[in-house]
Amino acid sequence: MKTLTLFFFILFALTLTSNAQITKGNWLVGGNLTYGIQEGESNSNGNKSTSKGSALNLNADLGYFVINKLTVGLTPYFGFGNPEGSNNSSIGFGIGPFARYYFLKPEKTINIFSQLEYYYGNSYSNGKKESESNGYSIKNGVAIFLNNSIAFEVSLNYNVSKNNYVSGYDSKFKDFNIGVGFQIHLEKTTNQ
């Protein structure tokens, strides 16, 4: 317990002196890990069915601050899904654009952000292509700047995706998940 208290005290002390690099011309590099429960609806030849399952996703971010507090960029992802009641799990990967906005002043140690993503990807099961998917994600969270470059973040995410399966049917998935991650804010350099 003493170790945990000491960790949070050091974390708090470090955050008191940090200034975030969320200003125009800087870069954002990082990622997060999310876990959530999926709920889906499938449609095959007019027959509808519902399903549930769990998903684990690893997302990376590479963005550029076009104005203060607003970054745009690309986010590749890798995911693992396990439908409830099925022996077949699937893996997926893809990429898409994102935009992220920080709501508080750049000098704040703790900042609130919102991120909107669109993605396109493929999923595979048992080594064979299973589906093509596209969708969007809305992410809201808190970034805690440990120093002027590194932020720890926690977010609540809402995802909607549509899958077109090779076997001829389609499905829509919606899920909420919780994400944790780190972002590195790289300061622009100037040539003297």
UniProtKB/TrEMBL annotation:
Give the record's keywords alphabetically.
Answer: Signal
Signal peptide positions are 1-20
What name does the UniProt record give this protein? Outer membrane beta-barrel protein
Record the organism. Formosa maritima
